[in-house]
Specification:
One of its GO terms (biological process) is transmembrane transport. The chain has 19 helices and 22 strands. The protein is an alpha/beta fold. Among the domains are: 77 residues, no CATH class; 200 residues, P-loop containing nucleotide triphosphate hydrolases (Rossmann fold, 3-Layer(aba) Sandwich), CATH 3.40.50.300; 73 residues, no CATH class. The strands form four sheets. The protein has an eight-stranded mixed sheet, with helices on both faces. A six-stranded mixed sheet has the order 6-7-8-3-9-10, sandwiched between helices. The relative contact order is 0.12.
Length: 576
């Protein structure tokens, strides 16, 4: 049987001499219709460049295929060697024959067009739909990827959606054209585990229904284990191992494959939580949040507001010195909005946030998800580290330079890093720089918003170990926001689960993870991907995601709680 895609000795290089600067070196594989190939490896291994070569998008990033062949069987039965195809032929391949889901949706979506218009455009170009048929098709795709209030969000612009929702829009756009081959480059990185499980179930369902083939690129072997028929492991542009999924996972032959498998954080349902809890009766919280409410008005005009998005509604928690509170929940649940309100970056409608500080004028600092976007590329490390101190009224003197050197040493970077620029560091090193900068003012609380989700698993493990070491050394308290339950299990003392703008369960990490009480927490934990769970199949969840859009003047009923343990509280669920 002729494969849908056959790649032979693919070599890709960059720069003025691409042959001398090869980043993909002799990659070969076959992919049949209805089959899924998982490509795994760390940053710089050549995964994405290999994928971008299949529809020649690598040409637009300065890359060039120097040798090899990419034979694609088209819907009309003809075979096309993509490496030698002209741009006219490639325009018909992209979208129709080969769909693509990119990792970073904000750079892939047009900021000046609504998401509805962008999905309609894909339907118009690739499926010939017009007018109401295109609008209905776009709405159906948004419903299928579980966008809440899909009809009203058709008119939203990309910046009005959370990162996870933007990624779902990207997935909807790619699937709208019904491609014969779908390339998914880290498509669920920004998604929480429940939505991730639903997207994986949706992709598997579409594959089975249509015979669509998939190439799934990820650094999460636990995720790809549940969907891939075959796995290809890449390192430094080379394929170091490939075979059927069970063989590669159960009996890996290459040292690098074994390294990747050992570095993956394994979720143990609360059996591996931290035991060094700093919570004591005789210490006061460093932060107390009481009845926090954040709302965003929409539809302002001559006749007032149509209503408001209740992004955060009645959130309460406290954070002790030296403690990590993990906040988990799906995209749009209010995790980041809560963190930004604590930092006074989001205006709150009501609520009290009390911060007790004994050592710093700026007791709360933040580390963001994307380290490269957080660092000014025109400033060297010395200027970047000095920036928060200077803004706080300090002078760039020898004492400040000694503080910089001390912190660089503590985050595992050499002193000569002071003269270098952000682009001269790896992703993990850049995140270490962001951590060092956050510590320049000797804060008592560090807010970490998905701070390790963009890192390779081995780098992620090192950064988590660093954060735990720094916490013990400096007595830091962490507000740790993440969608990765295995990561939260490793670092959190306590966990707060957020759903639809509200905390629905909170308590000691071991209690929440081992004995979840709220129905949403149970769904969250059951959806965690793992190598050990690769035979677990998820069904499409048709449960309607609750709307956060409320009419003017609406106030939710007061929350009712029950105690499930010594440090474990659960919000009572409404009886339907």
């Amino acid at each position: 049987m002729t494969p849908l895609l056959s790649v032979r000795d693919l070599r890709v290089g960059f720069g003025s001499d691409p042959v001398a600067n090869e980043v993909v070196r002799g990659v070969s594989f076959d992919l049949a219709a209805g089959q899924t190939l998982g490509i795994v490896g760390e940053s710089g291994s050549g995964k994405s460049v290999t994928a971008l070569s299949i529809n020649r998008l690598v040409d637009f990033g300065g890359g060039r295929i120097t040798s090899g062949s990419i034979m694609l069987q088209r819907a009309d039965g003809t075979a096309l060697d993509v490496t030698g195809a002209n741009e006219h032929a490639l325009r018909h391949v992209r979208g129709r024959d080969v769909g693509m889901i990119f990792q970073e949706p904000m750079t892939s979506l047009n900021p000046v067009h609504t998401i509805g218009a962008q999905i309609e455009e894909a339907l118009r170009i690739n499926r010939g739909l017009r007018g109401q048929a295109a609008r209905n098709g776009a709405l159906a795709m948004l419903d299928r990827v579980r966008i809440p209030d899909a009809k009203s969000r058709m008119g939203y612009y990309p910046h009005q959606l959370s990162g996870g929702m933007r990624q779902r829009v990207m997935i909807a756009m790619a699937l709208a054209s019904s491609p014969r081959l779908l390339i998914a480059d880290e498509p669920t990185t920004a998604l929480d585990v429940t939505v991730q499980a639903q997207i994986m179930a949706l992709l598997a369902e579409l594959r089975d229904e249509t015979g669509m083939a998939m190439i799934f690129i990820t650094h999460d072997i636990g995720l790809v284990a549940g969907i891939a028929d075959r796995i290809m492991v890449m390192q430094s542009g080379l394929v170091v191992e490939q075979g059927d999924t069970a063989t590669v996972l159960d009996t890996p032959q290459h040292d690098y494959t074994r390294h990747l498998l050992s570095a993956v954080p394994h979720f143990t349902a609360g059996r591996a939580t931290r035991t060094d809890s700093p919570r004591t009766e005789d210490s006061d919280p460093v932060i107390t949040v009481d009845d926090l409410v954040v709302r965003f008005s929409i539809g302002r005009g001559l006749f007032g507001s149509k209503g408001a998005v209740h992004a955060v509604d009645g959130v309460d928690f406290d954070l002790m010195p030296g403690e990590t509170l993990g906040i988990v929940g799906e995209s749009g649940s209010g995790k980041s909005t809560t963190a930004r309100a604590v930092l006074d970056l989001n205006a709150r409608k009501r609520g009290q946030i009390t911060v007790r500080s004994s050592r710093s004028r700026r007791p709360i600092q933040m580390v963001f998800q994307d380290p490269f976007a957080s660092l000014n590329p025109r400033l060297n490390v010395e200027a970047l580290l000095a920036e928060p101190a200077i803004a706080n009224g300090q002078h760039k003197d020898e004492a400040l330079r000694e503080r910089m050197k001390f912190l660089l040493n503590r985050v595992g970077l050499p002193e000569d890093a002071l003269t270098r620029y952000p682009h001269q560091f790896s992703g993990g090193q850049r995140q270490r720089l962001c951590i060092a900068r956050a510590l320049m003012l000797n804060p008592e609380v560090v807010v970490l918003d998905e701070a390790v989700s963009a890192l390779d698993v081995s780098v992620q493990a090192k950064v988590l170990d660093l954060l735990i070491d720094l916490q013990r050394e400096f007595g830091l308290a962490y507000l740790f926001i993440s969608h990765d339950m295995a990561v939260v299990e490793r670092i959190a003392h306590r966990i707060a689960v957020m759903f639809a703008g509200q905390i629905v369960e909170i308590g000691a990490a071991q209690a929440v993870l081992s004995d979840p009480q709220h129905s949403y927490t149970k769904r969250l934990i059951s959806a965690v991907p793992a190598v050990e769970r690769r035979n677990q199949h998820f069904a499409i969840d048709t449960t309607q995601v609750p709307s956060l859009l409320r009419p003017v003047g609406y106030e939710p009923p007061k929350a009712q709680w029950r105690q499930a343990g010594p440090d474990h509280h659960v919000r009572l669920e409404a009886v339907s």
